[in-house]
Specification:
The structure holds two protein chains of two kinds.
Chain A lengths: L10 E10 L2 E11 L4 E6 L5 H9 L6 E6 L2 E3 L4 H6 L2 E4 L11 H5 L14 H15 L15 H14 L4 E5 L7 H16 L3 E5 L3 H7 L2 E6 L2 E7 L5 H10 L8
Parallel strand pairs in A: 3-8, 3-9, 6-7, 7-8
Antiparallel strand pairs in A: 1-2, 1-4, 4-5, 9-10
Helix pairs in contact in A: 4-5
Chain B lengths: L1 H8 L7 H5 L3 H25 L7 H7 L5 H26 L7 H23 L9 H25 L5 H20 L9 H4 L9 H29 L7 H24 L4 H10 L16 H19 L1 H11 L1 H6 L4 H27 L10 H11 L11 H21 L3 H26 L3
The chains are: A alpha/beta, B mainly alpha.
The complex binds adenosine-5'-triphosphate and magnesium ion.
Amino acid sequence: MSTENRGTPLVELRDISIAFGGIKAVDHVSIDLYPGEVVGLLGHNGAGKSTLIKCLSGAYQADAGEIWISGDKVEIRNPRDARAHNIETIYQTLALADNLDAASNLFLGRELVTPFGMVDDGRMEAETRKIMGRLNPNFRKFKEPVSALSGGQRQSVAIARAVYFNAKILIMDEPTAALGPHETQMVAELIQELKRQGLGIFLIEHDIHAVMELCDRAVVMKNGQRVGTVNVKDVTDDDILGMIIMGKKPPQAY
Amino acid sequence: MTKAASDTQSTPARRSFLETLEIDTRLLGMIGAFIVICLAFQIWTGIRALPEITYNPFAWLANGRYLLPQNVFNITIQMVSVAIMATGMVFIIVTRHIDLSVGALLALCSALMGLLQVWIMPTALGLGIGNPAIAPMTMVAGLALGALVGAFNGWLVGYQRIPAFIVTLGGLLIWRNVGWYMTSGKTLGPLDQTFLLFGGAEGTLGTTLSWVVGFIAAALAVFGLFQARKTKAGHGFAVKPLWAEGVLAGVSVVAILGFIAALNAYQIPAAKLKRMFDARGEVMPDGYSEGFGLPISVLILLLVAVVMTIVARRTRFGRYVFATGGNPDAAELSGINTRLLTVKVFSLMGFLCALSAIVAQARLQNHTNDIGTLDELRVIAAAVIGGTALAGGVGTIHGAILGALIMQSLQSGMAMVGVDSPFQNIIVGLVLVLAVWIDIQYRKRKGIR
Ligand SMILES: Nc1ncnc2c1ncn2[C@@H]1O[C@H](COP(=O)(O)OP(=O)(O)OP(=O)(O)O)[C@@H](O)[C@H]1O
Ligand SMILES: [Mg+2]
């Protein structure tokens, strides 16, 4: 897919910087994302990938830089603001309340309520069963607190939460890190389906094959800075690995 | 939906009696401990009351004084103020905080309410003693002060990030002494007549009304059980067998009505009855007797228990309290304003301290500086004995109330059989540590956390 003439980007992060103490975790990075596109975010451990997308999800506030959504400059001060812009996030840490069950986690902050304003656990569980049936049909532990789930089952819950609410912009920080091969395949299919529906997806992923398979473009980061961006079709996996490991920019990159 | 239902029913066919009932075994353990305490003191007092040594356990039980209606009544009204605060402490501890200032805040609210009804309203504002507006206005002011001071504590914890331990340790020293300063250390009394009704023995519903309340409560319990069953079935989830539902309903009804029967059996002393008739300008008929029935303070506790349970289980606020306790970062990332939540939780605690201040002051029939002393420890102990985990995220309202009841039964029992007072405190301390130890073992066994 070419980057020209596609109208306004869904998301534009312009010149984002954020530092923790002396460490510049993200250093003047700009990236964009178009509807129906999957942009991979790559880089070594500690490159600043999670920190960058947390500025978009409202978990952090950038020290400098601008966020534009569908052509409008916006302020995202907290996760509530991000949700209001239809941004959903699967965090690397999953961000689940261990003492609550899958349904309570899925609807956390957006509970379904009865006409009397009471939380409707029955309806939430039924909805959770429906979506988990699509994502992970082997999932059975609807009554247990999520602390009793395996790493992969927990990840399924986090993914279900992000896709349930009709996001326009989806951020996935290593969504398949804990999943088995079958479940990973199902997430790959899910990503492709969401893409067809016109969502924009930021995908942070270490597995280069998954990147080649799923992403339209890839952004490589190193030490908080953007090394370059490539159209995945135009490069080989060795080109991308070279960018990640050596910071070497192939001619096709911009 | 049929698929979902068959999923859950594919669990092993043979389940134990208790599993079928789906009662939390932890709760059952606490109820068991409570029954053991009651029987032990009943037997102890029974053996003492018998003129000569017998080896007949039924004689021991029959002669015990511990389970006499009078003692049941007294234990109940003595536990109310700690139990009310313990329900709020559950939320505080679940959100990974602590409140050491509840006793001091109770004293502050009590001081304000004492001043208002004894001096400010009748004299300074000229309403006159016995004005019917005094009690409600006093209570509103006291409850508002409690909620306000609580909110201030919550603001310091939530927005200024001072650890709750420090904020409320400061509060423990501050609030009681602010109250002391306001009253110049004087004992305030006599209290307003209407206000006194909230203390316990002075204000009871009488036998008929108590039965009415009892039957309504029993009906609600049964209705609640079957409503929950209907909702579950409506979504196609597995439900317990009907007989199990019936057993639970039966036990609840017997427990509720038995409790009302005990309170109704406690007869108002003749001298007091006569005073009541005299006050109404009537003559007491010969041989007239009347039971106390359900105290208003206990009715308040029951209402607090129901409301707090609904808040914990059925409202978004309650859901956020538990989510924040389970993982504060996840709660924040889910868009929950955890700072404001902290303010609300502490404010609710303050409100309940003020409510307890009404009950405690009315029961003691005046305000003294030392009202509620050491209550912070009793309240925390009740919540913890009731299964609230200090690590956060886990706790129940009924557990905390049962915890308060267990502590009060133990204390009353020991006082009744004449255990020396240092030993009383030693035993309460041991019970607290033992309860937490058992809880840890239980969780290990069950593989929770
Ligand atoms: N809350 C924080 N406080 C201090 N330093 C932080 C914080 N979050 C991230 N950092 C630092 O910022 C840098 C970037 O971290 P980040 O988590 O964004 O890396 P990443 O690219 O997601 O790595 P990984 O692939 O391991 O997930 C690291 O050096 C990290 O130590
Ligand atoms: Mg990361």
